[in-house]
Prior knowledge:
Elements: H1 12-33, H2 40-47, H3 50-87, H4 93-96, H5 104-118, H6 121-148, H7 164-175, H8 184-187, H9 195-224, H10 235-242, H11 246-269, H12 271-280, H13 298-314, H14 321-343, E1 344-345, H15 353-373, H16 379-406, E2 408-409, H17 426-439, H18 444-464, H19 469-484
Antiparallel strand pairs: 1-2
Helix pairs in contact: 1-7, 1-9, 1-14, 1-17, 2-3, 2-14, 3-5, 3-11, 3-12, 3-13, 3-14, 3-18, 5-11, 5-13, 6-9, 6-11, 10-11, 12-13, 14-17, 14-18, 15-16, 15-17
Amino acid sequence: xxxxxxxxxxxxxxxxxxxxxxxxxxxxxxxxxxxxxxxxxxxxxxxxxxxxxxxxxxxxxxxxxxxxxxxxxxxxxxxxxxxxxxxxxxxxxxxxxxxxxxxxxxxxxxxxxxxxxxxxxxxxxxxxxxxxxxxxxxxxxxxxxxxxxxxxxxxxxxxxxxxxxxxxxxxxxxxxxxxxxxxxxxxxxxxxxxxxxxxxxxxxxxxxxxxxxxxxxxxxxxxxxxxxxxxxxxxxxxxxxxxxxxxxxxxxxxxxxxxxxxxxxxxxxxxxxxxxxxxxxxxxxxxxxxxxxxxxxxxxxxxxxxxxxxxxxxxxxxxxxxxxxxxxxxxxxxxxxxxxxxxxxxxxxxxxxxxxxxxxxxxxxxxxxxxxxxxxxxxxxxxxxxxxxxxxxxxxxxxxxxxxxxxxxxxxxxxxxxxxxxxxxxxxxxxxxxxxxxxxxxxxxxxxxxxxxxxxxxxxxxxxxxxxxxxxxxxxxxxxxxxxx
Length: 485
């Protein structure tokens, strides 16, 4: 809301939803085609090689551990806000909000989620199903109730002059955080019965429900409350109080406090599976493959949980939002490109030309996003920026046309039994363009953050690949031999 105004309702959220749906259909195919732990990491490894898989894993870690930390932090902020709304500055506030960026409530909920996971997924399944139903019911209640209280004047002007088109696109980048999670289905696809049918079905259904609910809820909230007065930490409870419905505010506030711990639990659940896949491939130490007698990834859960608890307790949500969103968009881009590389191949007389064209297309998509973002600058600057923008757009379209027409289609005997992403390569290329376009809308600090984060992991991989990787694989090989003796 703070970057797009009322337009954040169905323009920013719809753009983010478009990117999520385009990538979601790619995940649906690859999740059925490669039903194993790892999600985008596995797809990148199978189609692009090890370095690309490391980048995908780094981005997925932002989604799993980073998002779980951010949600835990948000839950802690909501607890403090709720207690203050009930009792003012009670004796508990100095304990729950001691300052210095420390959030004890986030510590409690993140630690509790880790303990529950350590007891095993089966033990947490009933709680997960119950709170998932409660979560959907709560969002449905907020959407319907707020839409009935919406006022037309709160939606005028739809796009405030101080925000403009750039604000809408910037809002779409931040809104993308709300669409995370559906790809976690792919990370546990190896544990799914009949993944070729159930994984695509689960992803598509999840995306449809989430998109409709989020856009409806956002429309209701901004229609119920002037966008300048929407709380960043307690939007719906404060919104219902603004409208004079205290009982609805209580239901919403308590509901959020009840269901957000589930989000923390489900989000961090995928991280040990990712590190397990990397450990099996020799990219991480063998400790990440350690299991207890029930098959739970005990050490991977402890390590990921410890990182999550530290971040949730010490790092405010505002510092995590853009980094997580851009990391997820980059992981989605890798997945979109993987579908093309699975379904198409380079011409026989030009080896690796498809891979080169994909790199060129993605680079041009990002550059085009940067140029389009700056097209609204001063008149003297706008002319040459507009010229470069047109050239970048034309080059991007030309490379896309080359991928469509000059690259051969692969044949796969299993394709008839799998869900296939429609309109390949058009849909995956559109997903890549939109994802990278949204990343380009970040401020310089955000771009430097995601660039530095990915660069750190790439450098770490290049430095250690020839030093530690062989020894880790040797340990794994010894373990495998001893298990078969």
